[in-house]
Design a protein that fits this description.
The protein is an alpha+beta fold and 494 residues long. The chain folds into 3 domains: 83 residues, 2-Layer Sandwich (Herpes Virus-1), CATH 3.30.40; 80 residues; 208 residues, Sandwich (Jelly Rolls), CATH 2.60.120.920. The chain is built from 8 helices and 22 strands. A 7-stranded antiparallel beta sheet has the order 9-12-21-14-15-16-17, with no helix packed on it. It is elongated. About 5% of the residues have low confidence.
Length: 494
């Protein structure tokens, strides 16, 4: 097709509003056609969409929007024109047939020199296409350089995500196995306890039945003796004579001496009644312990005094008393020599640690916070005065002096040292149904709480200090007393 002819055809299939090839052409009664989007927008501006009239943008003839009709033959011509445009013609102005040598910045499209001088582009910023192409290439090069720098980062992040995904899978698998193992152990414990209780019940049943058999045999023998005695008495009644007086007297004595011996009555009450454990309560206690164990901190020990009666292990996780004091003089020594603190100081947050005291018969554990403006002699521990009464020994281990602790003495006496409004220390004795081999200590700085858990007894709470008046910092406190067995800090994986 000749170019002049194609230009004329393009004019016929060009929208008078957008000056581009028609898209979904709609025609008016006057014969002019427009893009569907263009004439719809024009009709909306004039109010024709609400049922009013509007004017044709070309000839000003009046029309109603609902009278617009699709023009499929014209749409087919537009399609063929689009298909027949050559690559060279694509770079020519569709209105003037000239090369597109200029770029309009406002409209962001290439135009020819005639278009640049038209009213449509008057006042717009226009540039030669070579300059625009060069600037675009420079920007693209810069963008390419920047994006290529991001590629290694993306690959690294992808590798990190893959590694994190694999790590989480392994962690979840390990956690799943740990959970399954834990519940299997609980089931095994329940099965073992069920077997033990049922075996005990069976033993009780055998004993009861054996006792009943013995009672039955005793009663049968008495019954036989009673029959024989009745028979002898009847025989003497009906066949008595002067010759049988001696026999009659003998039978009478037998009847007088005979008494019914009742067999031992077996109590229907079982010797030992099985109490179903409060599993919900146990699980709630275990849940509380599991919750605080999330805040497990790796504590390392350090002695308070330069001259100390303790020995620390190489990893600073175990402390042992090295001086051998007799237990009868336990209250006459300077226990500050056994003071041990954790290296970490806490001023905010939540912290938890566990201590193994399984071999000890005396210890003190808890939290220490230096008290301000406290006139004290000696070290940060307390010094015993041989002249004071024995209960006064505990006065240094109260919250007034910065200690929130519990302790064990003499192997079975568990004590807690509470705050007292008088000069006499308030020492409480704790009942411990299961002696703790491991003690958990939980510190909540914001809530001002110090809690102690018996990890050995499913994490039951030993004691809780509330409304603790900490100073600026607190730290873990340990005291092995004079018991030469070690206190050992447990690791989170132990």
């Amino acid at each position: 097709m000749d170019f002049p002819v194609q230009v004329n055809i393009q004019k016929d299939v060009t929208c008078p509003i957008c000056l581009d090839l028609l898209t979904i052409p709609l025609s008016l009664d006057c014969g002019h056609s427009f893009c569907q989007a263009c004439i719809t927008a024009k009709s909306k501006e004039s109010g024709a969409l609400q049922g009013g009239e509007s004017n044709c943008p070309v000839c000003q003839c009046k029309y109603q929007f609902w009278n617009l009709r699709p023009n499929q033959p014209l749409a087919n011509i537009v399609k063929k024109v689009r298909e027949n445009v050559s690559p060279q013609q694509k770079n020519l102005c569709k209105h003037h047939g000239e090369k597109l040598l200029i770029f309009c910045k406002e409209d962001e499209k290439a135009i020819c020199q005639h278009c640049a001088q038209s009213v449509e582009h008057r006042g717009h910023q226009i540039f030669f296409m070579e300059k625009v192409v060069m600037e675009c290439q420079e920007k693209l090069q810069a963008a390419l350089k920047k994006l290529r720098k991001e590629q290694p980062k993306m690959e690294e992040l992808e590798a990190d995500i893959r590694e994190e995904k694999a790590s989480w899978k392994n962690h979840m698998q390990t956690e799943r196995q740990r959970i399954l193992k834990g519940f299997n152990e609980i089931r095994a414990t329940l099965d073992s306890e069920e077997k033990r209780v049922l075996q005990k019940l069976e033993e009780d049943e055998v004993n009861v039945l054996d006792n009943l058999v013995v009672a039955r045999d005793q009663l049968a023998r008495q019954k036989q003796c009673l029959r024989e005695l009745i028979s002898d008495i009847e025989h003497q009644i009906w066949g008595s004579s002067a010759d049988t007086v001696q026999d009659m007297i003998y039978v009478m004595k037998r009847s007088e001496s005979w008494t019914l011996k009742k067999p031992n009555i077996v109590s229907k009450k079982l010797k030992s009644t099985f109490l179903i454990p409060d599993l919900c309560g146990m699980l709630q206690v275990f849940k509380e312990l599991t919750e605080v164990q999330r805040y497990w901190v790796d504590v390392i020990l350090k002695p308070v005094n330069a001259i100390s009666n303790i020995a620390l292990s190489a990893d600073k996780r175990q402390v042992t008393a090295v001086h051998n004091f007799s237990l009868k003089n336990i209250f006459l020594c300077d226990f500050s020599a056994f003071d041990v603190l954790g290296c970490q100081y806490f001023s905010s947050g939540k912290y938890y640690w566990e201590v193994d005291v399984s071999e000890k018969i005396a210890w003190i554990l808890g939290v220490y916070s230096k008290v301000r403006n406290l006139k004290r002699k000696g070290s940060s521990g307390f010094v015993f005065d041989p002249n004071v009464n024995r209960p006064d020994v505990y006065s240094r281990y109260t919250p007034q002096f910065g200690y929130w602790v519990i302790g064990l003495q003499n192997g079975s006496e568990y004590k807690v040292f509470e705050e007292s409004s008088t000069s006499d220390p308030k020492v409480l004795t704790l009942f411990m149904p299961v002696p703790p081999c491991r003690v958990g200590v939980f510190l909540d700085c914001e809530a001002r709480i110090v809690s102690f858990f018996n990890v050995t007894n499913h994490g039951s709470v030993i004691y809780k200090f509330s409304n603790c008046q900490f100073s600026r910092t607190t730290c873990p406190y340990f005291n092995p007393w004079n018991c030469q067995r070690p206190i050992t800090l447990c690791t989170p994986t132990s």
